Structures are given as C-alpha cells and as structure tokens.
Amino acid sequence: MKKSNGFTLIELVVVIVILGILSVAALPRFINLSDDAENAVFTSISAAFENGINQVHIAWLIRGNNQAVQDFIEISDASVGGDLSVNSSGYPADTRGRSLALDSENDCLDVWRAVLVSQDALVAGNDTSDFEAQYNGANSCTYTYNKQPALTVDYNSNTGEVTINN
C-alpha cells in the first residue's frame, strides 16, 4: 500500500481552531499597543519639555542673574520667533521680548517652541497640531496632547513647575 503524505481534514480544522483561539486571546493586547505608544510619545515629549525648562533655569543661576533677562538664550531657528527671555525667577517667559513675563497664549507657544526647538512636537493655539497651548492666567500654561486630550502638561513660570498629567 502506498502511504499518503500530508494532513487530514480533521488535523487542519484542529489547527485552525487553535489559531483562532490564540488570536482571540492576543488581539486585545495588540489593540491597546497604539494607546501605549501614544502615551510613550506624550511622556517623552513632556519629559523633554520639563528638562528644557530646568536647563534654562540652571543657566540663569550659573550666570548669576537675579532679575528678568531679555533675549537670555539666542535661538537661531527662525520658526521659534526670537530669542528666549526669562522672567525674574529665571524661568522661560517669551521669545518676543515684550513683557518678560508669561502672560498670554502667544507666550505659551513661544516657550514650548523655544525650549524644545523641535519640529517633532508641534504646538498651536488650537487642535490642529500635536499639542494645543492654552494660557491659564497667573503666568501658567496648559499643553493638551490632541491625540489623547486627557494627557496634559501644565507649566507655571512663577515656580518653573512642570506637571505631567497622564
């Protein structure tokens, strides 16, 4: 007798059923990966912003300043809008050198762009960009991550505190 090589129909059905069960068990894990990836992007950009704020303040302390400084850090990127100025506490305030205080939505935009100096995390005054900047009054801003609006970064230029809400 000649022996046939290959799988029987029953063996193929069993393999397909097992693969189906495995895919049903694994699918929810892979669906959540996009949310996890967005969270990771938000966290890294937020951490970079916080580090940038701290570096500007450290530079202000090292230079021995005890007052607001217009055009404190030269910014060569024309899209930023000018050189970064700091307030009397030594924290980033604006790039247009007008008030030396963070007191408008434009100042919130200025600080984000100057501190990150990156096109990877775009900011605007509306939801057309990666982050939306909003001036909260009292020299503070909130940056909302538009891909997941529950993720925000708060910046208080009076204290330099950056709060990452994720």
Overall tally of domains = 1
Rg calc: 25 Å
Tell me the series of helices and strands, N- to C-terminal. HHEEEHEEEEE
Please indicate the percent range of residues in DSSP E strands (runs of 2 or more).
15-25%
Total helix count? 3
Biggest sheet overview: 5 strands, mixed
Query: Total number of β-strand segments?
Result: 8
Q: Average pLDDT value?
A: 86
Kindly name the structural category.
Answer: alpha+beta
Q: Name the strands of the widest sheet in spatial order.
A: 4-5-6-7-8
Global outline: rod-shaped
Give the distance, in angstroms, between the N- and C-terminal Cα atoms. 69 Å
3D architecture notes:
The structure is a single chain. The chain has 166 residues and is an alpha+beta fold. The protein has one domain (37-165). Helices cover 39% and strands 22% of the residues. It contains 3 helices and 8 strands. It has helices spanning 9-31, 33-62, 105-116; strands spanning 69-73, 84-86, 92-94, 123-124, 131-137, 140-145, 152-156, 161-165. A 5-stranded mixed beta sheet has the order 4-5-6-7-8, with helices on one face. A 3-stranded antiparallel beta sheet has the order 1-2-3. A hairpin with a 4-residue loop joins strand 7 (152-156) and strand 8 (161-165). The longest helix has 30 residues, at 33-62. The mean pLDDT is 86.
